[in-house]
Every structure is written in structure tokens, then in C-alpha cells.
Design goal:
The structure is a single chain. This protein has 481 residues and is α/β, with parallel strands linked by helices. The protein is 26% helix and 19% strand. It is built from 13 helices and 22 strands. It has an 8-stranded mixed beta sheet, with helices on both faces. A 3-stranded antiparallel beta sheet has the order 1-13-14, with no helix packed on it. Helix 5 links the parallel strand 3 (106-111) and strand 4 (159-163). Bound molecules: uridine-diphosphate-N-acetylgalactosamine.
Length: 481
């Protein structure tokens, strides 16, 4: 936006008034020092800020820290369809989902606006080598699921990729360099998420990154629900006849980007309003750091692990499972109608979440650069799962962890490249073993090899073509199928 801004020598009076009315006039302290080009870009940036909302945001999220008190609520497990529960007819839902996909009513959607900072990776996370054996980029691994579904269901499936201003062009260039991973260019649609101003933690004043730019941060994956609308992506979906969006995060190379059973459950299961559904994995360890899906006072939503009291996290059902075991994989089915409804009236109605961060900025009085050693700023983000309570009925589909979930978030330990590699290998090992291939395992039971199976080869063990299967795997072997 700012690149195309018109040079100017003055801040428009209406903008000046809007800024002054909400007590943020420090933002204009240095405008006299800017060139017309710099000022034009600054004015364009300021025009994107919803200043009228700022005082409430500061009061609610900067001066106060919203808390969730579980004891004040009635919390129960959500309506769930578990992969190992024979009481529901999986095939029926597969057929329902397959029909919707074949009819071109399902689009793939990946949120890829976040930075790989926790991973220590400098670049869009989707470019990170995720394949256990091949080192394929995460984007390529997700693209293969789209390619698989297009072929399997003989239909054009558009793939929407949400970026942020920080990585938009790099992402597009990466797709260009890789010829869109074999997908038709017109079926890969990029759009950018919105930004939020970052606030001074002590004063509630918006931070200046420089004399002619405010400090901003991406507005969180929840911002996707607004950006889908404002970018025109939703209208593009409508024009293609798309009714449901299959939402996955860029950091999970095992995510089945298009999953017929999940599509079918979302669209047709009892208890589902077909607005927004969630894929979950059974939480085994009460201390595992994933949000849980639960019904809170009768409304399905996510309770973040940090908000879940230890005794409730550890509570067990009669069968020994955790009472609240629906761990959030951040894989959702969302209807186009629902996203449209959320955007009616101009405001999404999702709450913000605050994070205290170190934000490099300038002193608003002297203009001196500040490189903080301690968190000085509050960043506000929306989370996509906060839309769940706004549905009229939401269900969860519990899948087996190794089948769908091996995220890469941290450089080491849990949810790292190493743990993802181990899970990718374990999944492939199980599939091969189910087909009679001997996979070497170490004393602790983990595979003594590295394996990776592309969805283009197989999406489950039954799919594995006889001629693609090795007769045996030797200890230490690396094998990609
Ligand atoms: C998220 C969930 C957590 C669990 C986990 C599963 C939150 C707060 N927690 O943890 O409950 O379900 O995922 O993997 O979400 N992104 C954007 N724009 C943004 C911010 C994020 O596109 O402004 C994307 C990002 O590129 C990534 C995804 O959202 O694909 C997840 O973001 P994250 O790493 O911040 O979420 P995380 O790991 O805290």
C-alpha cells in the first residue's frame, strides 16, 4: 500500500483530528522532517488504522490483562467423532465429503502469515525444508495434497494462501521459482492479512518504528477471517462455486489439506451447523501445550492451555481418558457463508489476545532509537478458533496423531524439525507394516530408519501401490516413497 502512496506536504486535517481525538497525536511529532514521499507513505499507513477503536483496545488489552476463570464456567467435552469409535459410519461421511469435493465446493486454505522466529528461520515458514527424507519445503508438501485431491476427485481445487506484508512478495517469488509446484497458476491465490498497531506497554501510545512509520504486527491467524473478505478472496470463492474452506496451518507437513471424511462430517454430521468444525488429536499428557476444544457454557470454543487449571487439565473420564482431551490441531473446515456473516457490520467481533514483546521503536519526544532489552510493547492478535463460539453448532473430528499432526514450530524439542521427522517416519512405518513390510525398530520401539511417503504415492496404507513398496527396510535406511 505504502509504495504506491502519493507524495504530500501535509497531513489531511480530518486525519489529524481523528488522531488527536483519541490521544495519539505523538504520532505526528516528526512529520515536518519527512520528505513528501515519506509523508505520503506515512499518511497512507495512518489511513489504514481504525483510530476510533484505539481507546477501547488500550483500555481492554493494554491497561488491563483479560483473564479466563475456568471456575466461573460450565465446561464439558464437545460433540466428537473419534477415528476409533465404530458407532458412526465413516464411509457415509467419506462419500458425502467426496461428493462436495468432486462438485468443486471445497477450497484449500493455508495461513502462512506468521514468521518463523521461534524456529530461528529467516524467511516464510512455508519455504522451510519439512520433508523427513526429501527436505521438500512445507509449501511443496501441502501442494502435493492439493494435487492429490484434484486428481482423485477429478476437479479443480483452488488453493488460497494467506501471507502478511512481511513475507508476501517472498512467498509469491518462491511459488514462481517452483512453478507453483505443478498447480495451475490461476488456482493458487495469494492475499495478505491485515496489521495492527503495536502499543507502548506503559502508556498505551502507539509505537513509532521511525519518524514516518508506526510499528505494526500481523493481526493473527484470526485476521484471516477478515482478510478473506477484504481481499476479495471470498468473492473469488463464490464465483468458483466454493462453499467450504479447508483451513490448515503452514507449519504442519502431515496436514491432509483436503480430507473427505472431515469435509463430510463438517457438512452433514449431527450437531454440526456446517459453519466451522475442528480436527483434534487426543491429548494424553495433561501438561501438553495445546489448546483444548470444549463446550463452555454450552458454546464450543478453545481453552488455551495457559487458561486451563491443572486439576481440570488432569481430570479423567470413567474410561481413563482425559476429560478434556480434544487437543486443537488448528485444522478447520469453515463455510463461506459463515465467514461472510462474520464480516457483516464491518467488525469481525473476535476478541484480541495480548502478547508482550520487544518492539524496536523511537522515542516519541526525542526521536532517539530504542532497542529494548525487555518487552516494551503489546501486540494484539486475533485467533481463528475464537470464531467457534459464534457458530450455532460445531463438532470435532478426532484423528490419530501420526496421521495428521507433525508441526514444525521450534528449533529443538517438541514440535521441531526432529520431532516432525520422527512422526513422518512413524506414520510411514505403520502404513508399510500394515502391508507386511518389515520395518527395523530400536529397543524403545521407534523406527530405526527415516521414511517419508508423499500423498501422491499414498494417503493411507491401503493406497500403497504394491510396486512402490520395498520388500524390506534396512537399519539406518532413508527412504522416500
Ligand atoms: C497454535 C494454537 C494452538 C495449537 C497449535 C497447533 C494459537 C494461539 N495456538 O499454536 O492451540 O492448536 O497451533 O499447531 O493459535 N499465522 C498467520 N498470521 C499471524 C499469526 C500466525 O498466518 O498473524 C499462521 C502461521 O503462519 C502458522 C499458524 O498461523 O501457520 C500458527 O501460528 P502460531 O505458530 O503463532 O501458533 P501456535 O504455534 O502458537
Amino acid at each position: 500500500v505504502t509504495d504506491a502512496a502519493t507524495p504530500t506536504t501535509a497531513v489531511p486535517p480530518t486525519l489529524r483530528d481523528r488522531i488527536a481525538t483519541v490521544g495519539q497525536e505523538h504520532l505526528l511529532n516528526f512529520v515536518d522532517e519527512l520528505t513528501p514521499e515519506q509523508l505520503g507513505a506515512f499518511v497512507a499507513q495512518l489511513e489504514t488504522i481504525d483510530f476510533e477503536r484505539v481507546p477501547r483496545l488500550v483500555e481492554e488489552y493494554v491497561n488491563a490483562k483479560p483473564t479466563f476463570d475456568a471456575a466461573q464456567h460450565d465446561i464439558t467435552p464437545p460433540t466428537a467423532f473419534a477415528f476409533d469409535d465404530p458407532s458412526w459410519n465413516r464411509d457415509r461421511f467419506y462419500d458425502r465429503g467426496a461428493e462436495l469435493i468432486s462438485d468443486g465446493k471445497v477450497a484449500a486454505f493455508t495461513v502462512a502469515g506468521g514468521q518463523g522466529s521461534r524456529l530461528g528461520y529467516d524467511g516464510p515458514k512455508g519455504c522451510f525444508p519439512g520433508g523427513a527424507v526429501t527436505g521438500k519445503p512445507l509449501f511443496a508438501m501441502l501442494a502435493e495434497w492439493v494435487l492429490w485431491a484434484r486428481k482423485r476427485f477429478e476437479t479443480d481445487i483452488p488453493w488460497y494462501v494467506m501471507t502478511s506484508p512481511l513475507n508476501h512478495q517472498t512467498t509469491i517469488d518462491f511459488f514462481d521459482e517452483h512453478a507453483h509446484f505443478g498447480l495451475p497458476r490461476e488456482d493458487v491465490v495469494f492475499f495478505q492479512q491485515g496489521a495492527m498497531p503495536s502499543f507502548d506497554m506503559r502508556t498505551g501510545r502507539i509505537l513509532l518504528k521511525s519518524k514516518g512509520e508506526i510499528a505494526t504486527n500481523p493481526d493473527g491467524h484470526g485476521g484471516s477471517l477478515r482478510a478473506l473478505h477484504t481481499s476479495g478472496a471470498l468473492a473469488d470463492m463464490r464465483s468458483r462455486g466454493v462453499e467450504h474452506i479447508s483451513y490448515v496451518q503452514v507449519d504442519n507437513p502431515l496436514a491432509r489439506v483436503i480430507d473427505p471424511v472431515f469435509v463430510g462430517l463438517h457438512a452433514g454430521a449431527e450437531g454440526s451447523s456446517a459453519e466451522m468444525s475442528t480436527k483434534v488429536i487426543a491429548k494424553i499428557d495433561p501438561a501438553e501445550k495445546v489448546g483444548v476444544i470444549a463446550d463452555v457454557d454450552g458454546k464450543t470454543g478453545v481453552i488455551e492451555y495457559s487458561d486451563l487449571p491443572d486439576d481440570l487439565a488432569a481430570k479423567r473420564s470413567d474410561n481413563g481418558d482425559l476429560f478434556l482431551k480434544a487437543g486443537n490441531t488448528a485444522i478447520h473446515m469453515i463455510s463461506v457463508d459463515f465467514v461472510e456473516r462474520l464480516n457483516q457490520g464491518g467488525s469481525l467481533g473476535l476478541p484480541f489476545h495480548r502478547a508482550e514483546k520487544k518492539v524496536p521503536c523511537i522515542d516519541p519526544d526525542s526521536g532517539t532509537p530504542i532497542n529494548p532489552a525487555e518487552p516494551n510493547g503489546v501486540k494484539l492478535e486475533m485467533f481463528v478458533f475464537d470464531a467457534l463460539p459464534l457458530t450455532t453448532g460445531s463438532i470435532v473430528y478426532e484423528v490419530e496423531r501420526v496421521d495428521d499432526f507433525a508441526p514444525i514450530k521450534n528449533a529443538e524439542g517438541t514440535d521441531s524439525p526432529a520431532s516432525s521427522k520422527a512422526l513422518q517416519t512413524e506414520r510411514a512405518a505403520r502404513w508399510l507394516e500394515a502391508r507386511g513390510v518389515a520395518v527395523p525398530r530400536t529397543a524403545d520401539g521407534s523406527p530405526d530408519c527415516t521414511l517419508e511417503i508423499s500423498p501422491l504415492t499414498a494417503t493411507c496404507s491401503e493406497d500403497l501401490p504394491g510396486d512402490a513398496m520395498p520388500r524390506e527396510i534396512t537399519p539406518g535406511q532413508s527412504l522416500a516413497l
